[in-house]
Design goal:
437 residues, mainly beta, Pectate Lyase C-like, 29-stranded parallel sheet, 31 strands, 11% helix
Length: 437
């Protein structure tokens, strides 16, 4: 009986706790066993519904009590369906602040910078071609125009072409003119100091036979009155019956950057010329036609002597000489203090030939390339014996010859350096192939 009362008291107490929990809105119904349980209420919450100061024994909930008929008769009120709680916004993270320090504010949110638009490049205007200079007039005779030019003046006839043979007897500059020389006459003859021929074009009458008076350009003085300070530059000279440029008794001349082709006897011939320079010229094709009448003699660039003494103190450098099948590329006959430096000689029977007792000759840094077998066969009619006898450097009767740092290629064995006798004071260093003297 005592057990029954105790059970009744406990059952009633449990019912009161359940009712109190329902009123507090904290009971959840579990459909599995029909048993009412609290979603993890703390013991203090359950006891506080009965007594503010419950005994500690009431804080323990009996596990799985036997159902009591008196309690089953009491139907608990249904719990109202809770409204879904809105999702809370994430709470800002609180950074603890040490005493005496201010909280670091969160970094400011800056909008992403907008890219700076690149300006559309403007199309470059097509450059206008530089107009060619138009001469004031090409009328009248060329000789008359030269005579009318003041001493020291410039006559620019760029774009004008004349068939003429002219002579210059005053200091002046003749520029840009094209001249076609008549038969048996020079194109231009210079007989005064201080003359400059700049970018002229001289075409001779023919180049198939040797003719003494058909030099494309000639400058001539005398032993007592040599032509001085002549300049011939950047000019085109072709089809000359004798020489491309012939200087006789000239001093302090500068011959540079000219293109000389298809001449019968010599590309550039210096006769009794002193204190002069021949630089950066091209000489191509000498003696291929017409040389038979002059025993096949043909020269690229030569410093020689005629009446009045030898050529002396001449520098011949940086030139290209090629395609002279029967005779000599670089040559001196009796020259004194002649320097041949940094020239290229190709497809020439004898690349360098020193004769006539030359003195103090310097050969330095030249590139000498032998004619190929095919080039030797492509020889003027009747000159096959000349074309077959090839040599790189030949010297006879030279005194004080200096040969250094020259390069040869293609020369037959024993034909790179040909000592023809009578030489003295020869020094050879740094040559390839080696030259033994």
């Amino acid at each position: 009986m005592l057990r029954g009362r105790r059970a009744g008291v406990i059952g009633l107490g449990s019912a009161i706790v359940v009712v109190a929990a329902i009123l507090a809105g904290s009971v959840a119904f579990l459909p599995s066993a029909g048993t009412l349980t609290s979603p993890s209420p703390s013991p203090s919450q359950a006891v506080s519904a009965l007594d503010p100061s419950p005994p500690s024994s009431l804080a323990v909930v009996e596990p799985s009590p036997s159902p009591d008929p008196s309690v089953a008769a009491i139907s608990p009120a249904p719990s109202p369906s809770p409204s879904p709680a809105p999702s809370p916004s994430p709470a800002a993270t609180t950074v603890p602040v040490s005493a005496g320090h201010q909280a670091t504010p969160p970094p400011a949110q800056h909008p992403a910078p907008k890219p700076t638009p690149r300006p559309t490049p403007k199309p470059k205007p097509t450059p206008k071609p530089t107009p060619k200079p138009v001469p004031a007039s090409c009328g009248g005779s060329l000789q008359a125009r030269i005579n009318a030019t003041s001493s020291g003046g410039t006559l620019d006839l760029t774009g004008c072409t004349y068939t003429a043979s002219v002579t210059i007897t005053k200091s002046m500059t003749l520029r840009g003119v094209a001249i076609k020389a008549p038969s048996n006459e020079n194109g231009i003859t210079v007989k005064a100091d201080g003359v400059t021929l700049d970018r002229v074009k001289v075409t001779g009458y023919q180049a198939t036979s040797f003719r003494w008076g058909e030099n494309c350009i000639e400058a001539s003085g005398s032993t007592s009155n040599p032509v001085s300070s002549l300049v011939i530059r950047s000019s085109t000279i072709t089809r000359c019956g004798r020489d491309g440029i012939y200087l006789y008794h000239v001093t302090k001349a500068t011959i540079s950057s000219n293109h000389i082709t298809n001449v019968v006897y010599a590309g550039i011939l210096l006769s009794t010329v002193t204190s002069s320079k021949v630089q950066s010229n091209t000489v191509n094709g000498v003696g291929r036609s017409g040389a038979a009448t002059n025993s096949y003699n043909a020269y690229g660039i030569t410093a020689t002597s005629e009446t009045g003494g030898p050529s002396s103190d001449v520098v011949i450098s940086g030139n290209l000489v090629e395609n002279i099948p029967t005779w000599h590329g670089l040559d001196t006959h009796g020259g004194i203090r002649i320097t041949f430096s940094n020239n290229t000689v190709e497809a020439v029977r004898r690349a360098v030939f020193l004769t006539g007792g030359p003195e103090s000759i310097v050969l330095s840094g030249n590139r000498l390339i032998a004619p190929t077998p095919a080039q030797r066969k492509n020889c003027p009619s009747g000159a096959s014996s000349f074309c077959a006898d090839v040599n790189g450097i030949s010297a006879i009767g030279a005194d004080g010859l200096r040969i250094s740092n020259n390069t040869g290629s293609g020369w037959p064995s024993g034909h790179w350096y040909h000592d023809l006798g009578g030489n003295s004071g020869v020094v050879a260093t740094g040559n390839n192939p080696v030259i033994r003297v």
